[in-house]
Amino acid sequence: MLPVLALLLALPALLLAAGPAAAQVRIKDVADVEGVRDNQLVGYGLVVGLPGTGDKLRTAVFTRQSLVGMLERLGVNTRDNEKQLDTRNVAAVMVTANLPSFARSGSRIDVAVSALGDSTNLTGGTLLVTPLLGADGEVYAVSQGALATGAIGAKGAAASVQRGVPTAGRIANGAIVEREIPFELAGQDRLRLSLRNPDLTTAQRIAAAINGRLGGVATATDPRTVVLLTHGRDIPGLLGEIEQLRITPDQSARVIIEEASGTIVMGADVRISTVAIAQGNLTIRITETPQVSQPAPLSNGQTAVVPRTGIQVDDQNGRRLGILPRSVTLQELVNGLNSLGVGPRDMITILQSIKAAGALQAELEVR
After folding, report:
1. What is the pLDDT of residues 90-110, one digit of tens each?
2. Residues 196, 31 contacting (CB under 8 angstroms)
3. Would you report the helix, strand and coil content of the chain in percent, each value rounded to 5?
4. Which of helix, strand or coil describes residue 123?
5. Contacts from 342-345 at CB under 8 Å and sequence distance 24+?
6. What residue stretch is flagged as signal peptide (predicted)?
7. Contact, 324 vs 334, CB < 8 A?
8. Alpha-carbon gap, residue 145 to 270, rounded angstroms
9. Which of 210, 198, 192, 195 is nearest to 246 (CA)?
10. pLDDT tens per residue, range 242-272
């Protein structure tokens, strides 16, 4: 409760610090060139050299079959004695990577490695040659190398401690690009800028900034897209000039509620119409303090336990009805709710009720 209360108390200060939110940003920070994108790769491989923390071959059938197939490709026949394999130094893993745009053949990319079977620790293992496939089934990169998990663990007779996840790791520059994804900027007669956060006002401001610098070459076609006519110009140079232009992004009024954790995030443009708010809970506290009744010496009595019950009722009658005037700001709303002693859980209910009453002039999203 204390960390959440501290967060609520810090909200007004954070809002004041971010008060003049009309900060300008570069176009490259809010929009991407359509077609210039990453592509996801995935592969299945084996990690070897583990200190007895690999898969159990008797239960992880896919690991045993993969190990037998790999040894056969290397000229070692283990088919006849497959069921006798009992090593714990091998683990089956899934390897994932992002192939960046314009990655050329021979360049290197990072890969992530995650255990697939019942391996308990991949630290110290080495990934064997693993082809990485794209969504079309083609091999675009090949990965191999020693992986690092960053996990630390210590274990004693009666206690153990572990920090990090030992069954997932990374290999820096662990894959070599074998196939390029063809995409040429040169020769394009038009380009499309795609906004990361769709907003029509922001799209129009981007088009206006580009036209103010280069003439009437940009048009905002929808909240996510700005079409740019190249007119035979040097496209890399043109994009390099455009992405440095600065605009002021706009945002819609929105309230995000994470009900599981009690987190509330509200945009700066959230407004509240005139509304009265009262909040209170009935709390009943029952305390049992039994006492022992002891008879007097040499008397014909018996020791008995006498119940003692204390009941306290808190109806929070000290709280009063609060009125928020028309078009209060986010900071005024938070200050008003804090003055009523409203906790985060109650604040979620109040915001939902204000929205239901039609007084919250913002989009309310509950997750």
Report:
1. 999 999 999 998 899 999 999
2. yes
3. 20, 35, 45
4. coil
5. 342/279, 343/1, 343/4, 343/5, 344/4, 344/7, 344/8, 344/262, 344/263, 344/264, 345/262
6. 1-23
7. no
8. 51
9. 210
10. 989 999 998 888 888 887 777 888 777 777 7
